[in-house]
Amino acid sequence: MCGIMGYVGSRPAGPILIDGLGRLEYRGYDSAGIAVLAENGGLSIHKRVGKLETLASAIADRWPNGHEGIGHTRWATHGKPSDINAHPHADCTGDVAVIHNGIVENYLELKTELATAGHSFSSETDTEVIPHLLEHYLGENEELVTALRKTIGRLEGAHAIVVMSRQHPGTLVTARVGNAGGVVIGYGGGENLLASDLPALLPHTRRVVFLNDREVAQVTATRVTYWDSEGRPLEKEPQEIPYDSVSAAKGQHKHFMLKEIMEQPESILDTIRGRAQFDTPAVQLEDIPLSKEQLAKVRRVVFVGMGTSLHAAMIGRHYMERIAGIPAEVDNASEYRYRAPIIGADTLVVSVSQSGETVDTLAAMEEAKRQGALQITICNVAGSQATRIADGVVYTRCGLEIGVCSTKTFTASVTALYLLACYLGQARGLIDKERLGGLLEPLARVPYLAGEVTKREAEFERLAHQFHRYNNFLYLGRGIQLPVAMEGALKLKEVSYIHAEGYPAGEMKHGAIALIDREMPVIAIALKDDMHDKMMSNIEQVKAREGTVIALGSEGDEELAAKADHVIYVPEASPLLSPIFTTIPLQFFSYHIALRRGCDIDQPRNLAKTVTVE
Ligand code: M6R
User: Fold this and answer.
1) What is the residue with the minimal CA distance to atom 10 of ligand 1?
2) DSSP 3-state assignment of 330?
3) How many angstroms does the Cα of residue 604 sit away from the middle of ligand 1?
4) Who wins on pLDDT, 111 or 247?
5) Is the per-residue pLDDT at 243 higher than 70?
6) By alpha-carbon position, which residue is closest to atom 7 of ligand 1?
7) What's the pLDDT score for residue 547?
8) Sheet (strand 499-504) strand order
9) Cα–Cα distance list, 461 to 127, 254, 468, 568, 589 (Å)
10) Distance between CA atoms of 50 and 287, rounded to whole angstroms?
11) 151, 17, 21, 20: which is closest to 96 by C-alpha?
């Protein structure tokens, strides 16, 4: 969940660390810190509670002098956000500095043991046991890398750790344990870097190595050496990353969220490009190396994901049943992993994860793997852990998504799930060319129509201005629009801090209707599809209780216009693809309400882009 960055080379380390952390701040932003080893052997540690800019301005006119260092942006788990609790943490001697992502689940036991042995602690964090354990093993004359290997052997939980030491100048050591977010090592010329995520490395290099579970690495300016958890040397070759760091810039947009909403026509198009063939209808998915025989054996599909990705997965379930004709279920990954799920070899598990590093999704995938299921992941980040666990990947081609609030990756995931269902239906011989043609033709229009919706920002902004003072919203949908209602409510909650519920409209009468009054606007998704009549009844029920209704409807639906207080018309599209067009106005609505309320849109309080702790 936190951002980690390391540098060793010939350039001044401080500015490189701060720049890298700036690119990782979406992972956590309640405090930040750096440690730099000066040529005279001094280790200077600077930490500040608050956003990175607080730290950056504190050191702007007195950059620590040195060519190797580590840095961290924190999302607090143990110990409140404060200067003291910020990373890096040091041992008693001040020789060792550590940054860490993850939770030391047995830290109380270790802290008691270390305190009894005479170590003194200055923070309330779980992380601080790590430098003290290192101090202990270094005191037994172990090499730094061996001390780290022994240390991780004592820790429970999942971790990414980076260490530097005054006694080992020119060297960083790092380890990954489990799925607490990754460690990526970037190879430069005469310098090397490491980070929790690619964006921090891309300005310097595209040649990278991802650490796997329980691997340890030693990084100097000219060499990177790897070991497994038993201390056996490993050979790892750097891979070339195709990402363009330019896309990390906000461009002319005020916020990344707005930029990313606007990018959806392009990211949807990129996700389709080269995969859907429209003349002789066919779908090709380049990263699914599963045979027809393997796909033919699938009897059941289980979708897993969290947050926005879970909502995309819920739409994927409709696709799998209606397009590929395979029984499908969807589960919240954090529930699934602890539910003793029964997964057979005839189950295909489809995970959805923008980052490919969400801890609960990865744990659900590990469980599926343990039980022998086939797995495909819908993912945006090349080389992420999810893509390495799964047997096949459908990449969403969105480029970097920086806003903590997911937008373009939702619609691209929905697009990828649609392609996957078509692909499976085709591979299993369930859909013929004619039906496939009928499914792909409306897909070809989606990028254009999405562009038409984004052009209407001003209309959604006006509506947002009328409603930005309300404190509760109810979002209603049915069928394939239920996940959109849930996603709309999630967007509003996370960026504007307004209470919002996404609810199955049919369930409303069983409780939520008691909440409806003039103070609770209801957003109802009521397209002209097979749920239209039912949604109209729900709207009547809301109106009968003096509720205000904002409806999303199909062009020309006058009956809806007569009943609802406000109507947002969405383009006519195939019912299966319409969730893309109902989602985009709701993204704009949340964005403009949050803007009006002065919220921190790209970095909402308490959140982080990638949730790598439970
Ligand atoms: O990286 P993932 O897609 O696995 O992340 C899952 C959720 O944390 C994520 O979708 C979260 O709900 C969104 N940032 C909300 O906008």
Assistant:
1) 308
2) strand
3) 13
4) 111
5) no
6) 307
7) 93
8) 499-504, 472-477, 522-525, 549-554, 566-570
9) 44, 14, 10, 12, 6
10) 41
11) 151
pLDDT computed for residue 522 by the predictor: 97
Q: Tell me how far apart the alpha carbons of residues 276 and 262 are, in angstroms, rounded to a whole number.
A: 23
List the one residue out of 307, 523, 304, 471 whose CA is nearest residue 405: 307
**Catalytic positions, please?**
2, 609
Q: How many whole angstroms from 581 Cα to the centroid of ligand 1? A: 20
In the predicted structure, residue 245 carries a pLDDT above the cut 80 = no
| Residue closest to 275 by CA, chosen among 450, 423, 427 | 423
User: In whole numbers, what is the pLDDT of the chain averaged over residues?
Assistant: 92
Residue-wise pLDDT for 558-582, tens only, equals 999 999 999 999 999 999 999 999 9
Please report where in the chains the tokens 């001040």 appear, as a residue.
94
Q: Is 565 helix (H, G, I), strand (E, B) or coil?
A: coil
CA distance 77 to 26: 16
List C-alpha distances in Å: 126 to 5, 85, 119, 181, 388.
Answer: 20, 10, 14, 17, 29
590-608 residue pLDDT tens: 999 999 999 999 888 888 7
CA of 148 to the centre of ligand 1 (A): 31
Which atom of ligand 1 lies at the shortest distance from residue 308's CA?
A: 10
CA distance 514 to 93: 62
- Beta carbons of 445 and 456 less than 8 angstroms apart: no
* Residue 98 confidence (pLDDT): 97
